[in-house]
Design brief:
Helix content is about 65%, strand content about 0%. The chain is mostly helical.
């Protein structure tokens, strides 16, 4: 691959993002920004579940953390605690906002932030190794948090998880 090929592909990608989207991922065609975050979380969990059996543990861990964050953002938007243009800009910030909004206790939010800081980064950057047991536990945690939040939402029926 040459640098000119990379430049061509980069231009193609930019053009794809500039065009009106077609063949949108199932379930994401909603106008409400809160529901979009909810459904992104649903799709992340579904993807993580599909990848677990195939041994893609790094992706499962990454998707599980992101699913937790999208689920929290759904709740922040739904409750009017945050606006779509002012969502927390950092991963630990999502957990802090979750505690401030009463979605989780301060203790749980701190533990989630510590988990992200200590283990997500290590797994992602290969200081730590992804393993089946870690991926499965992380997926279980993300699923439980998703169901916990969805169960307290007046829009829980909009969840597209199976």
């Amino acid at each position: 691959m040459s640098s000119s090929k990379i430049e061509t592909l980069l231009d193609d990608v930019q053009a794809a993002f500039d065009r009106r989207p077609e063949n949108i991922e199932t379930g994401l065609t909603v106008e409400d920004t809160a529901l979009l975050q909810l459904r992104k979380a649903c799709r992340l969990l579904a993807g993580a579940d599909a990848l677990r059996d195939d041994g893609y543990y790094t992706l499962v861990i990454e998707a599980s953390f992101v699913a937790i964050e999208r689920t929290v953002e759904f709740r922040l938007l739904e409750r009017g605690t945050a606006q779509s243009d002012a969502l927390p800009g950092t991963h630990p910030g999502v957990y802090r906002e979750a505690a401030s909004a009463g979605i989780f206790s301060e203790s749980v939010a701190n533990d989630l932030a510590d988990l992200w800081r200590e283990h997500r980064a290590k797994t992602y950057y290969q200081d730590g190794l992804a393993a089946r047991s870690r991926a499965e536990r992380m997926y279980e945690l993300a699923s439980e948090i998703h169901w916990f939040v969805v169960g307290r939402s007046s829009q829980g029926h909009e969840c597209i998880c199976e």
